[in-house]
Amino acid sequence: MASKSHVRVGEQAWARTPKVNGEFFAMTYGALVMQIIEDHEDVDLVNKQLEKIGYNIGVRIIDEFLAKSGLPGPCQSHRETADSIAKVAFKMFLGITADVTSWNAERSSFCLTFYENPLTEFVELPAEYTGLVYSNILCGAIRGALEMIQVRAQCKFVRDTLKGDDVNEIQVEIQEVMEEVMSEDYKDNS
Question: Where, by residue number, does the polypeptide cross the bilayer (predicted)?
Answer without folding.
Answer: none
